[in-house]
Amino acid sequence: xxxxxxxxxxxxxxxxxxxxxxxxxxxxxxxxxxxxxxxxxxxxxxxxxxxxxxxxxxxxxxxxxxxxxxxxxxxxxxxxxxxxxxxxxxxxxxxxxxxxxxxxxxxxxxxxxxxxxxxxxxxxxxxxxxxxxxxxxxxxxxxxxxxxxxxxxx
Length: 154
Prior knowledge:
With 154 residues, this protein is mainly α.
């Protein structure tokens, strides 16, 4: 029996996650709730860095941890943003649409894992973004897996 692939491998590796992140930020730039976080647009460096984060979270190489500051940098990027519930929900919604735009796997198992991370991560970012938030200062970058539904293979 072959070993279970990571979500990163199942999706198609770094190129697939770069497509996802670019599709997402293309939507963000046109969105009235989220575009104010990126005056002047979402620059290529930001897109690459977020692509590295998502790749690592979904089982890819630890580039974000080793080269871009890891968990601590991601937390710092969200502090004091004052994200609202509506903005959190819009982020998750646009990312789900971007997964379609980017041609990410559409099997229920992969999408369940993707949405689970979106819900988990956006709710943490929402909390960390509030004034006076009690933020966990040091932690590893999360490593997301299949959860309750491993990849379906007939």
